[in-house]
Amino acid sequence: MSLYCGIACRRKSFWCYRQLSTYVTKTRYLFELKEDDDACKKAQQTGAFYLFHNLAPLLQKSGHQYLAPQHSLFELERLLGKFGQDSQRIEDSVLIGCSEQQEAWFALDLGLNSSSSINASLQKPEVEKELTGSFTELRKALYQLNVKDASLLSTAQALLRWHDTHQFCSRSGQPTKKNMAGSKRVCSSNQIIYYPQMAPVVITLVSDGTRCLLARQSFFPKGMYSALAGFCDIGESLEETVRREVAEEVGLEVERLHYSASQHWPFPNSSLMIACHATVKPGQTEIRLNLRELEAAAWFRHDEVAIALRRNNPYTQQQNGAFPFWLPPKFAIAHQLIKEWVEKPIRFTLPV
Ligand SMILES: NC(=O)C1=CN([C@@H]2O[C@H](COP(=O)(O)OP(=O)(O)OC[C@H]3O[C@@H](n4cnc5c(N)ncnc54)[C@H](OP(=O)(O)O)[C@@H]3O)[C@@H](O)[C@H]2O)C=CC1
Ligand SMILES: [Mg+2]
Predict the structure, then answer these.
(1) Which cofactor is recorded for it (predicted)?
(2) C-alpha torsion angle, residues 246, 248, 252, 256 (rounded to 10)
(3) Which of 31, 107, 168, 185 is least enclosed by beta carbons within 10 angstroms?
(4) Tens digit of pLDDT per residue, the chain (352 long)?
(5) CATH top-level class for 199-311+324-351?
(6) CATH 3.90.79.10 residue ranges in the chain?
């Protein structure tokens, strides 16, 4: 959103001002809902709910696309009533955003058991039948959702998972209680506040000037290669993580670094993916693979990568039994990083 505004600002200031004021209004409204439990509860009355079951979102298939249906508070209360549950369960929901008209959006998991609720898990097949949808694994559905829903459901899943795994204080062992919006949890005995966390991860596309380095882990789908990724160690800067991860995984030393973009990634837990381009020292391109981390890594030419980016159906096995070389789907920041490298030369700004 900020990048969007930044671009628009330089082109059309009046239009941009209107966009910004809508954005600011929305942001202030969400801030209020996070701070004020009563305001948040009130917002549920006119809000919309996205439903999950054991972290799988409820989706409806429409052709090749998945749609994420919204439910009103009234529909949700009716559903819970039908399955013999009281509406107290709705307090387990978390705030995940709002529309420009300030309709608040919430996510609620009907499968996870909450320590603060007497309600048991709802049976998945019965709920699916009632709501004419299916609870679908997010990782599988992500690429058949539009960008808005993919991003919203990723946030929702990450937040629901965090609440599910932080129900007790790590100091006192006593239960923690979420605020209405789900933006924090507080220990009932010592008032320690816990906030949802993301682990920073760098993802780096290494180039030698003409080729780029792509790698695969053994659990990747067959034929898929991606940029190098790795979690930041405590105490490290972004530049230090890039340098260490590239050295650890492929035995190369990177020279210059250029920040590209970032993305929240909900798998396996919540990560903040920080995407960068980097170059290796001239003439030092021999890959020394760390087999404990990677299954394979190789240098790829510009034309090979450009073709792979356009590949629509990567799972098609070739006649010789092999799988074609393909790249992560559009929604993944790895795809955007590789596309950026294919489309325009990168100006390297930061020494590592
Ligand atoms: N959105 C995108 O485009 C992409 C996203 N990714 C994501 O980036 C993440 C990191 O990439 P990956 O190459 O696996 O990372 P690493 O190279 O850092 O290797 C992963 C290993 O690091 C250890 N580790 C250290 N800190 C953490 C932590 N905070 N959370 C989990 N594991 C940790 C674990 O080892 P052990 O289990 O031995 O303790 C784990 O198996 C992945 O989760 C992946 O989903 C990756 C590529 C593309
Ligand atoms: Mg890695």
Answers:
(1) Mn(2+); Mg(2+)
(2) 30
(3) 31
(4) 343 444 334 444 444 445 568 899 999 999 999 999 999 999 999 999 999 999 999 999 998 899 999 999 999 999 999 998 888 999 999 999 999 999 999 999 999 976 556 667 888 999 999 999 999 999 988 878 998 999 999 999 999 999 999 999 999 999 999 999 999 999 999 999 999 999 999 999 999 989 999 999 999 988 999 999 999 999 999 999 999 999 999 999 999 999 999 999 999 899 999 999 999 987 899 999 999 999 999 999 999 999 999 886 666 667 777 788 999 988 899 999 999 999 986 666 666 7
(5) alpha beta
(6) 199-311+324-351
Q: Does the beta carbon of 233 sit less than 6 angstroms from any atom of ligand 1?
A: no
- Does the beta carbon of 297 lie inside 6 Å of ligand 1? no
**Fold annotation for 43-165:** Nucleoside Triphosphate Pyrophosphohydrolase (3.90.79)
CB under 8 A, 24+ apart: contacts of 138-144: 138/55, 138/56, 138/57, 138/266, 138/267, 139/267, 141/57, 141/59, 141/66, 142/329, 142/331, 143/329, 143/330, 143/331, 144/64, 144/65, 144/66
The CB of 57 under 6 Å from ligand 1? The reply is: no
Q: Which ligand is nearest to the CA of 201?
A: 1
Q: Does the beta carbon of 350 lie inside 6 Å of ligand 1?
A: no
Q: Quick check: CB of 201 below 6 Å from ligand 1? A: yes
ipTM: 0.94
Ligand 1 test: best mutation among 143, 201, 219, most atoms within 8 Å of CB?
201
Cα(191) to ligand 2 centroid in Å equals 37
Q: Is the CB of 144 under 6 A from ligand 1?
A: no
Residue nearest to atom 14 of ligand 1 (CA): 230
Asked whether 332 lines ligand 1 (CB < 6 A), one says yes
